[in-house]
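[Meeting: bench + compute handoff]

Bench side (C.D.) handed over the final construct sequence. Compute side (W.E.) agreed to return the predicted structure before the next meeting so the bench team could plan truncations. Sequence as handed over:
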Amino acid sequence: MFIIIAALLIGLSLGVLGSGGAILTIPVLIYGLEQSEIIAITSSLVIVGTISLVTVIVNLAKKQINWSMVLLFGLPSMIATYMGAWLASYTEQSIQMLVFALVMMTAAWRMHKAKAVANTANIAPVKSVFLGGLVGTLTGFVGVGGGFLIVPALMTFARLKMSAAVATSLMIISLNSVVGFLKYQQVLIDIELTLDWQVIGLISVIGSIGSLIGQKIATKLPQQKIRQLFALILLLMSSFILIQTLLNF
């Protein structure tokens, strides 16, 4: 029951906000299912990547993905994801969790401040490449998809409306997740650890359903209030993780 509820929340977050999947998934796997940090991060990349990709495929007919931004933002993000995962392989897991907690706090702030921006794209290539690289580095280093940065960036710099920003974010997250997983899987093989594919499969299936439901109801929900509620949840979770990590140093 815990996994089902958690998976639905993860999917709903991705479907409604285009972000928050990994930020919810990693604590669930570490504190709820008692997985190690590296197993949780790797599993999160598979889960969030799968949910994002399923949602993208189902909604391709709506033509909401801005493919120019996928290229300008997504390509440097994928390269940086691999570099971030490589850097993580030389970093203590406690440091990763400390960075993860700080990333969650940043996400809370961004979600609280984000506002809707009107209409179609006005692409800023240099900013897109820079932000894509930043998001990719975070994805690789701490296993987050980076949607909390991608969605506000697409709304602010590319001036995409919320629905297009969410759809484009999910496409970029799915690409980044594949790259990050491939690097982390190499590390797991080297240290002879394996993933729990039953848990990954269950959360991915239920999360995909939750994400599709989230996209259906997103237009009927007050976006600003939803973001603020999510920001509060992130702040509470990040504070808990930060305290736990500092106590274990």
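W.E. noted at the follow-up: The chain has one domain: 2-247. C.D. will use this when planning the next construct.
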